[in-house]
Design goal:
alpha+beta; Nucleoside Triphosphate Pyrophosphohydrolase; globular
């Protein structure tokens, strides 16, 4: 017997059950990010992600506040220039929002175009936060982030790895 001949629920029969699910989905989809995180990988393998060592707070990713009236893409590029001194990169894809679990912050993860000209490591003097020298390097996104990483950045790396996995070039 074909499935079309079988008795099954119709749209109006399940509407009441799915309406609640749809409302929850919409709430999550419209979460407003207050932080922007430019995600910079070294190349199309999406294996090495740009990170830095903050002299006080350990290993981190570039992240900063989205200013009033600023969209997440513009904020990510601004933060990338301010914190890392990189200005000739564009946004390739929005990786969505992520709830950091830290002070109720919601991050907008913005995948940037590749920067093959960047060295293995470098230092950038960041004027924000009192003018610190930040040491940048490439972190293997598949390697476990150790205790030198703040817990929110360890969780962010996991979210980025999962969201970037389907984008990896397999060639």
């Amino acid at each position: 017997m074909f499935a079309i001949d079988q008795s099954r629920a119709r749209g109006h029969d399940v509407f009441e059950e799915t309406r609640g699910l749809e409302e929850n989905r919409i709430v999550r989809a419209t979460s407003i990010a207050d932080k922007a995180c430019p995600v910079v990988f070294r190349d199309s393998s999406l294996r090495q992600i740009m990170a830095f060592e903050d002299p006080v707070n350990g290993l981190q990713l570039v992240k900063g506040t989205i200013e009033p009236g600023e969209d997440a893409r513009a904020a990510a590029l601004r933060e990338l220039e301010e914190e890392a001194g990189i200005s000739n990169i564009a946004i390739a894809r929005d990786l969505g929002t992520w709830h950091s679990g830290y002070n109720d912050h919601v991050w907008s993860l913005q995948l940037c175009t590749f920067a093959p000209y960047l060295p293995d490591s470098w230092v950038h003097h960041c004027v924000d936060d009192g003018g610190q020298d930040l040491k940048f390097f490439w972190h293997d996104v598949n390697a476990e982030a150790g205790s030198q990483w703040h817990p929110q950045f360890r969780r962010a790396l996991t979210a980025i790895r999962e969201r970037a996995r389907p984008l990896r070039w397999r060639g």
